[in-house]
Specification:
By secondary structure, the protein is mainly beta. It is built from 1 helix and 12 strands, in the order E-E-E-E-E-E-E-E-E-E-E-E-H.
Length: 163
């Protein structure tokens, strides 16, 4: 499953659409403006919230939490003791750990589990500026979760760059 993400660099509240390979709108990343912490909602085309993404207010390292309803799904943070600055760890609520690594700010990175590729995020496939692709490789992966992971990693990397 391949998706196309068109970011709005200066959009109020950071709202942007995610389209499928055929150009149909599938998800809306709805950034919540005027909040103390970065907060996003991933919605379907009917406006239903599929996933909430929030920055943790109190943590030693910048951390984002992905939730569905009131249920926590995952925590995303920079990998500890990593020589590479562009390496993140996704801790799933079931204990599974996913690795995210690559050139995050260039939108060229991979999501892996135990060395197996789950998703690839890349600008190479697309010619439009401020657009990148999310290719969910495994059929059993939840596309909304993969997109939420990408949003978290990019948000954390950009925040670190700006600090």
């Amino acid at each position: 499953m391949r998706f196309q993400v068109r970011e709005r660099i200066f959009g109020v509240g950071d709202d942007y659409w995610i389209e499928d390979a055929d150009g149909r709108k599938v998800y809306l990343v709805d950034g919540k403006a005027m909040r103390l912490r970065d907060t996003f909602e991933l919605k379907d085309v009917d406006g239903r919230v599929l996933v909430d993404i929030r920055q943790k207010l109190v943590s030693l390292r910048d951390t984002m939490v992905i939730e569905r309803g009131d249920e926590k799904l995952a925590t995303v943070k920079r990998k500890r003791l990593s020589l590479l600055r562009n390496h993140f760890r996704v801790s799933m609520v079931d204990g599974t750990e996913l690795d995210v690594s690559g050139r995050i700010l260039d939108r060229e990175f991979a999501v892996e589990y135990d060395g197996e590729l789950l998703a690839q995020i890349s600008r190479r496939w697309l010619t439009l500026r401020d657009t990148y692709g999310v290719d969910v490789v495994r059929d059993d992966m939840d596309p909304a979760l993969v997109i939420a992971i990408a949003v978290c990693v990019i948000t954390l990397a950009e925040k670190e760059r700006d600090d």
